[in-house]
Amino acid sequence: MSATVPAMQIRLPRKAIGKLIATELKQAWREPVALLLGVLVPVVFLVIFGLAPAFQKNVPTTSTTYMTEYTPILIGLTLVLIALISMPIPIVMQRQSAYLRRLSTTPVAPGWLLVAQVLVNVLLAVLAIVLVVVGGVLFFHAHAPADIPGFILAALLATAAIFALGLIIAAVAPDPRIAGPAGAVLLYPLMFLAGLWTPRETMSPLMHTLSDYSPLGAAVQAMLTAVHGGIPSAQSLLVMAAYAVGFGFVAVRFFRWE
Amino acid sequence: MTAMDNRVMERQTTIGLGPPIVEVQCLHKTYGRTTAVDDVSFSVQPGEIFGILGPNGAGKTTTVECISGLRAADGGTIRVLGLDPQRDRAALRTWLGVQLQEGSLRSSLRVWETLDLFASFYPHPAETGELLDLLGLTPKREASYRSLSGGQKQRLSVALALVGNPRVAILDELTTGLDPQARRETWGLIENVRDRGVTVLLVTHFMDEAERLCDRVALIDRGRVIAMDTPTHLAEQEGGGHHMRFQPSGPFDDRLLTQLPIVNQVEHQGHRIVVSGTDDLLNAVTHTLARVGVEVREVQLESATLEDAFVRLTGRPSPSTDKEKR
Q: What is the per-residue DSSP string for B274-321?
């Protein structure tokens, strides 16, 4: 039959993935929500806190500065701003404008676009984390983590957990006007339990336990342990891993393509 | 036979009589309790511009969504290039270009970036510079999507449907929302696309568009194909034929005309006479009356259009007249 397709190998063009990532990098530069919100805001906080004399003093109970104790909280702030605010809104807009649907008529499934977008946002989060940690140590009297692999593991698990939560917003929000407030509403309790407003040490026992089992509370706990030279507790690492897997499952299970 | 008929015949001989490139049999699709497509069958030959016409909500878009694999049919079979759009989705996507009715592209991406990105999705893409030329987008290649006019956005959308070098292109409501000038330009473009050897499946509710572009059309109403033919034949056979209006130089017996096989009706409107028939009335009427010494003056000829056929077949004003009234 002449109208049939000649036999050929159907493969995913590998250069498509590179192009998708390059496109997202350009986009991140042209519409710099993630750069301004997720990278610049934590760095500005770092500078403000870092210049305050109180933050240069040592915490009585540990032998580290207040700045050191605050660095994991700034990392948490970076993660929520990027993963809950700047990442979901464009994804929701792409679904709403049928761009995801448009992609599903091409040989490249729209899932690859999401992979590229998550990757670029993770890259920006890593950039912000490195800036906050290295900047704090170099200029603002923060102590370098004593257990660097433990610190990195804790930061990576926190990234996975918060990004998975952000993907749930991206998966189900029908409209950017819902995705935006949804991210903001989640941001406050997460940051509260991380200790942004009330340090964890001053929380009531009940709040402290809640904090231990919240994604960013566990992250701050694990990172601070690594800063002080201990190995992050299995509990805090497992809490983050469980959130990452659970949220990730929900996001994938309920993702709406149109 | 009219000049238009001749043109259609010529084109059809170049289309060839091979196996159909798109074949739809007894397509059925429901959304919950609503039947979107009841029973649709048609086949498209390689090289054709095949039009799918119908009122809003007739099931046109659902039909092409099933053909392009975006939706699974509830019943019937679909073959595109011999492939099943659901089972062979991956293979079909490299050969089928789709332009969706709604939707927009990434607003801050430039024209060439968007085209370049989509080109990277296909194993054997078209040359993007050439495509930009074909679509008249070369002067806009550095412009961001959000800065384009409606017509330019549509043309970019067509470019994306063609960038994979498809064998079949599905274009859904291509010119809706364009100004008349942009619509005419887009028509020329579609003819270019066909001339490149791409079979085009065109969904439209504009009768003039179908008349101008399509080799054949299927008229869909309430989920069923109610007529399928060339636009000319459809207009002639279903649209109420041709009308010739004239003033005779003197009286004559109506039977002279009514006995002609091509004449259906002769009507008197004051001094004027309206003859309705199926074919080239002018020659037949002029000759017949000349033989009895009657001249015809102030002749007006009207041919039934696809629009007339649409109205008669669906019992509704066509959506394009609707639009114009608004």
A: EEEESS-HHHHHHHHHHHTT--EEEEEEEE--HHHHHHHHHSS--HHH
Per CB-CB distance under 8 Å, the chain B contacts of A18 are 120
Q: Judge contact between A45 and A74, C-beta under 8 A.
A: yes
pLDDT in tens, A182-229: 999 999 999 999 888 888 888 889 999 999 999 999 999 999 999 888
Q: In A, what residues contact B, Cβ < 8 A?
A: 1-5, 8, 10-11, 13, 15-16, 18-20, 23, 26-27, 30-31, 94, 97-99, 101-102, 104-108
CA distances from A81 to A76, A183, A228 (A): 9, 8, 27
Burial of B33: CB neighbours in 10 Å, binned 0-12, 13-18, 19+: exposed
Q: What per-residue confidence (pLDDT) applies to A11?
A: 55
Alpha-carbon distances of A200 from A70, A157, A207, B180, rounded to whole Å: 11, 20, 8, 67
Would the CB atoms of B81 and A26 count as touching at under 8 Å? no
pTM: 0.81
Q: Do B18 and A2 touch (CB under 8 A)?
A: yes
Q: Do residues B94 and B164 lie in contact, with contact meaning Cβ atoms separated by under 8 Å?
A: yes
Q: Are B84 and B93 in contact (CB under 8 A)?
A: no
CA distance B192 to A83: 46
Asked if residue B67 lies in contact with residue B169, where contact means CB atoms within 8 angstroms, the answer is: no
Judged by CB atoms closer than 8 Å, whether chains meet at A1 and B82 is answered as yes
Helices (H), B163-205: 180-195
Task: Indicate the burial class of A156 (C-beta count within 10 angstroms; 0-12, 13-18, 19 or more).
Answer: middle
Instruction: Among B98, B104, B116, select the one facing A105 at the smallest CB separation.
Output: B98
> CA angle, corner B322, sides to B321 and B324, nearest 5?
65
Q: How far apart are CA B70 and CA B281, in angstroms?
A: 48
What does each C-alpha distance from A130 to A31, A51, A123, A230 come to in angstroms? 22, 19, 11, 21
Nearest residue to A90 via CA among A31, A165, A159, A146: A31
Low-confidence ranges of chain B (pLDDT < 70): 1-18, 317-326
Q: Calculate the alpha carbon distances from A252 to A104, A116, A123, A175, B118 in Å.
A: 17, 16, 21, 18, 25
Cα–chain center distance at A120: 11
B196 vs B213: CA distance, rounded Å: 15
∠ Cα B40 B43 B48 (to 5°): 130
Q: Specify the DSSP element, H or E, that contains A136.
A: helix A111-139
Residue type, A207: M
Residues B272, B245: Cα–Cα separation, whole Å: 7
User: What interface predicted TM-score (ipTM) does this complex get?
Assistant: 0.85
* Residue from B112, B120, B128, B168 whose CB has the most chain A CBs within 10 Å, to mutate: B120
DSSP β-bridge partners for residue B302:
B243
Looking at residue B234, its pLDDT comes to 84
